Every structure is written in structure tokens, then in C-alpha cells.
Amino acid sequence: MAGLREPSSAGQGLLTKLSFLLGAAGLLMAMSADAIAVLGRHVGFTVLGAIEVVQASVVLAASAAMVGATLSGAHARVHILIERLGPAWHKRFDQVSDLVSCLFFLFLAAGSAWVAAELWPGYEITEILGLPLRWLRLVWIGSCILIAVLFLARALGKGGSDEP
User: Fold this and answer.
1) pTM, full prediction
2) What is the DSSP string of 78-124?
């Protein structure tokens, strides 16, 4: 498939597997909580906090999916212009795209860290189960930083090749 890359090092291969496992665990946890809640409604008992478990699971799954997409080079890109360029310009545009993506995720991490810093002293928790949200915020911030580093490594030529 065009645009997809194999991990260029053993470290990236391990990171890809870890990302896959974390995402799969998040999706399995969300599916299980929701399935038990639906089953409970049909047989007459209520599972309190199922939505909170699903929301926490989505943070894990989404963070892992974004890291996995970055590692495999599967982020959406518009190729209508760069397909018509020569290899040198194509590489330059890819590098600029990777640098802009790096900056985007750094800004996203910075904004999320700002929100987390503001809410940290309040020990923010969910309403029913009391799940602490600070750790989920840290997972998200960490994944944004990791994604930014991966984009920077690819822009600097250390993350493998994206050439068709």
C-alpha cells in the first residue's frame, strides 16, 4: 500500500507492538463495559459508570491509534500536488509536512499540559466511579509528545522513508 512503511528499527517495531496492544486493550475494555451495560439493561440491572469506563478506554485507544498511525506513516496526506513534483521537491514537501505535523502535536501537547496543570491541584475525577482523569491526561500528553518526536525524526531523515 502506498505511503505505508515498515518500522525502520527494532525500537520502532517494539513501539508499534506496544501501541497495538495498548489500543487493543482500550477497545476491548470499552467494548466489554458497554456490552455488560447493555446486557444489564435487558435483564433488569443497571451498571453504573459504564460510560466513564468507555470514555477512559477511548483515551487509551485513541492515543495508541495516533502513535500507531504515525509509526506506520498512515496519517492522511493530500498527494494531488506532490505527485507531480520531482523526487527532490517531493522529499522537501514531505519534510515540511512532517515538521508542521511535529509542531501541531507539540502545540496540542502544550495546550493539554496547560489544562492538566490548571486542573492538577483539584484532583479531577469522574462523577460516578471516581476515576482520576489526571493520569489519562498524562497518557494523552505523552502520546502527543511521542508523535511529535516521531514526526521530527522522520523530517530529519531518521524515521525511515516514505517514498512510493
Assistant:
1) 0.83
2) --TTGGGS-HHHHHHHHHHHHHHHHHHHHHHHHHHHHHHHHHGGGT-
